[in-house]
């Protein structure tokens, strides 16, 4: 007989794994530590094997077994699917007009979506919108797993997302970002070879340089910083320079400068991503049409 999982047990398992201990998981769950231990033991009985290694008295850290490592993403997927259905049903029970789930890369989330969503939702007070921001790969995964209705992202070079339909909307150029007092700050544009003499910081968008003549820069980078706030702080402190798409450039910073990369000239296409051969909900289709219409109107007026 197949095991029947309890969502609470799955949550306890994920929390113990992510927080590296039963005590921390018990605090998060507002339960006692013995209760969490019992919950995990019952889950292991259902699975027929251990998910955590035997605890070491010399350390408070809790480690997953090989089976537990394999089961962790599956447990997270089950929880996400459960929560998505529960949320949808709760909204229907509350007589909401609809629920729209949207994911976007941070650059568009900060630069474009505030005004777009404000206009779109202006006459839809009963529409509930859940919004998530993440990198392009994560946005695509959310669309593929149907955790969101539509996404807004670029398609990674050589992507393997055969089930994704991509509608291009925006385009921006890759440039160099440095402090205002950096030797490159007064340049009108920069050749990639000029950057090999500098201390480089790579980030989540650096992969856009792959398969271009500037790809050697990826190996030259001394630092990698994934978070945009941290990256901005390090750049402002003079730790080094980086490459970013124009939409990702922190325009609120008064200490940084964006210089277009002239050779190679690398352009990034950003657009709406959705599953092929699957109809969108009325709300999601309305938003997609609205974004396309607004972008078309802007191009005609410019």
UniProtKB/TrEMBL annotation:
This is LysR substrate-binding domain-containing protein. Pfam families: HTH_1, LysR_substrate. Residues 5-62 form the HTH lysR-type domain. The keyword Transcription regulation applies. Belongs to the LysR transcriptional regulatory family. PANTHER family: HTH-TYPE TRANSCRIPTIONAL REGULATOR YBHD. Keywords: DNA-binding, Transcription, Transcription regulation. PROSITE patterns: HTH_LYSR. The keyword Transcription applies.
């Amino acid at each position: 007989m197949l095991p029947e999982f309890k969502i609470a047990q799955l949550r306890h398992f994920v929390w113990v794994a992510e927080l590296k201990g039963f005590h921390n998981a018990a605090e998060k769950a507002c339960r006692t530590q013995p209760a969490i231990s019992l919950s995990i033991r019952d889950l292991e009985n259902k699975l027929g094997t251990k998910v955590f290694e035997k605890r070491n008295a010399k350390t408070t850290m809790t480690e997953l077994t090989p089976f537990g490592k394999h089961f962790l993403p599956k447990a997270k997927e089950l929880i996400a699917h459960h929560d998505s259905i529960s949320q949808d049903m709760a909204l229907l029970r509350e007589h909401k007009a609809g629920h729209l789930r949207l994911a976007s890369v941070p650059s568009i989330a900060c630069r474009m979506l505030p005004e777009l969503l404000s206009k779109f939702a202006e006459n839809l007070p009963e529409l509930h919108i859940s919004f998530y921001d993440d990198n392009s790969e994560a946005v695509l995964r959310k669309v593929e797993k149907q955790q969101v209705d539509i996404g807004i992202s670029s398609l990674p070079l050589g992507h393997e997302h055969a089930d994704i339909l991509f509608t291009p909307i925006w385009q921006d150029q890759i440039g160099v970002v440095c402090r205002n007092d950096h030797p490159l700050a007064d340049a009108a544009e920069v050749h990639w070879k000029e950057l090999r003499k500098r201390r480089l910081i790579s980030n989540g968008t650096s992969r856009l340089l792959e398969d271009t003549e500037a790809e050697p820069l990826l190996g030259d980078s001394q630092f990698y910083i994934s978070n945009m706030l941290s990256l901005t702080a390090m750049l402002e402190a003079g730790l080094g320079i980086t490459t970013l798409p124009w939409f990702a450039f922190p325009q609120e910073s008064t200490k940084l400068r964006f210089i277009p990369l002239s050779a190679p000239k690398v352009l990034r296409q950003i657009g709406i991503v959705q599953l092929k051969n699957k109809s969108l909900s009325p709300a999601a289709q309305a938003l997609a049409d609205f974004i396309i219409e607004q972008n078309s109107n802007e191009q005609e007026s410019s």
